[in-house]
Amino acid sequence: MSARDPLRLAILISGRGSNMAAIARACTAGLINARVDLVLSERAGVAGLDTARGMGIATRTVAWPGAAERPQFERDLEAALAGTRPDFIVLAGFMRILSEQFVAARAGRVLNIHPSLLPQYRGLHTHRRVLEAGDRIHGASVHFVTAELDGGPVILQSRVAVRPDDAEDTLSGRVQATEHIIYPRVIGWLADGRLAWRDARPWLDGAPLVAPVVEDFP
Predict the structure, then answer these.
(1) Using one digit for the tens of pLDDT, what is the confidence trace for 112-156?
(2) Which region, left, alpha or beta, applies to residue 58 given φ > 0 means left and ψ of -120 to 50 means alpha?
């Protein structure tokens, strides 16, 4: 791929796909040198698929048959992805855990965004857990995907202050607004050659990324 070729993306979603839409809009506006070739969900009829089709993006559904049938699901997923040959797979609210084998075959080519300041609060219900713990800072993390759940190297984090009157929905809304900024930004770094996966770790601007870049938001 030359420096002038747009980065080809396949985005995996499970619901509304708000991060998917933010990435697709950034691509269409020319803010990042990338294009979304496919939006795929393991759930039929989710709003994000309608959003993608409305933006002129091809969509696919690969039904989740249950954890016992994960190998077949991943074979079907691979077949669906093969038609577009994406440079990167972007997980955007995708609620299924990919196997170690699937991820290892694509080391450094799968991204995820998680609504917490990793390594804190891996898994679900992060906003509720932050409020219950009385934390004063919360945020989101864009990271490379590895076999460890929410455990891959973090590239960029957003930080927001937890307000005294915050409820789960208000805190979630502010964090999600930052996700729509930092996720396209990381993809732009990849497209520009600033960010790369080398020697089993991320490199940014020609040097190993020893700690995530952090940006504070209101």
Answers:
(1) 999 999 999 999 999 999 999 999 999 999 999 999 999 999 999
(2) beta
φ/ψ of residue 167, rounded to 5: -110, 175
Over residues 36-63, the pLDDT tens digits come to: 999 999 999 999 999 999 999 999 999 9
Residue type present at position 164: P
Residues 6+ apart with CB under 8 A from 214: 156, 157, 158, 159
Domain 7-216 fold is: Rossmann fold (3.40.50)
The full set of domain ranges for the chain reads 7-216
Question: Closest Cα to residue 94, out of 113, 75, 115, 109?
Answer: 113
Give the residue numbers marked as catalytic.
114
pTM confidence score: 0.96
